[in-house]
Design a protein that fits this description.
2 helices; about 0% strand
Length: about 90
């Protein structure tokens, strides 16, 4: 009968150890999930800013393309000196 008590105690101790191991593993996994969600939020914010910047740059590109198309349609070329006098400076 004493042997049965020892076996039961060993089983309970093993169960307790497994519980603590599972608890620790779950805590580590929770911390990983929390770190990942923070990263996701940071990446989403950066992605949203990049999309806004892309839309702005595409709009600018299209407007400049329209201006180029209009210039191509003119009979007389625009002189660089005339552009400089009007205060328009090119970034190119």
């Amino acid at each position: 009968m004493n042997s049965r008590y020892v076996d039961g105690e060993a089983a309970a101790e093993m169960l307790e150890r497994r519980w603590f191991a599972a608890f620790k593993a779950a805590s580590v996994a929770r911390a990983e999930c929390e770190a990942l969600i923070e990263e996701i939020e940071t990446v989403e914010a950066a992605w949203n800013l990049a999309r806004v910047r892309l839309a702005h740059l595409e709009s600018l590109r299209d407007a400049l393309g329209d201006e180029l198309a209009e210039l191509d349609g003119q009979k007389e070329p625009v002189l660089v000196e005339e552009s400089a006098r009007s205060g328009v400076l090119s970034a190119a």
